[in-house]
Write a structure and sequence with these properties.
Length: 178
């Protein structure tokens, strides 16, 4: 629909949104920090500074709607395992399938990289039904990769879920994830 003033200036209204999920770039560091800040303050995501995000930018992905970054997630490499983490969405964009879309897209990415297991760890009660609906099953944190356990505060009251992946023929054991 179009709307014009008597002077001839106009606006175009469109219900369709341009949606894009892409690997994050350095220009996204501030947006990612903004997205995850409330999750860090609520202790659902472990603290990450903008410098930490910048140093690990290759592992982040962003979800854009009409050019606005509304969500982020991250893949962390642990050999045959990869962690899906740092998932955050702007509140007004929740409940519309954005986090689901990010999780499914990153599962595809992990599969293409030749990973065998995708796991998530979280303290957020909202995730109790979210990850199982995507095919993840509960797993004891003790069964997660040693490198992950060495860098994680196991006193956190978190739960873990895992999903088996079927690596593609083009997937390789060595990935560029950080």
């Amino acid at each position: 629909r179009e709307m014009f003033t008597t002077a001839g200036a106009g606006l175009l209204f469109n219900a369709a949104q341009r949606v894009l999920m892409r690997r994050a770039a350095l220009r996204d560091v501030t947006d990612i920090a903004f997205l995850i800040r409330p999750e860090i303050e609520a202790e659902r995501i472990r603290p990450l500074s903008e410098a930490d995000i910048e140093a690990r930018i290759g592992s982040f992905w962003v979800y854009e709607v009409d050019g606005l970054t509304v969500g982020t997630a991250r893949l962390k490499d642990f050999g045959d395992w990869v962690e899906l983490g740092t998932v955050a969405t702007l509140p007004r964009y929740r409940g519309k399938g954005r986090a689901r879309g990010m999780a499914l897209r990153l599962a595809q990415e992990a599969t293409a990289l030749g990973k065998h297991w995708l796991f998530v760890v979280g303290t957020d009660p909202r995730m109790q039904a979210f990850y199982p609906a995507l095919g993840f099953v509960p797993i004891a944190r003790e069964h997660l990769p040693e490198a992950w356990k060495a860098s994680y505060d196991l006193s956190r009251p978190s739960k873990a879920w895992v999903k088996g992946l079927q690596p593609t023929a083009s997937g390789s054991a060595g990935s560029t994830l950080r």
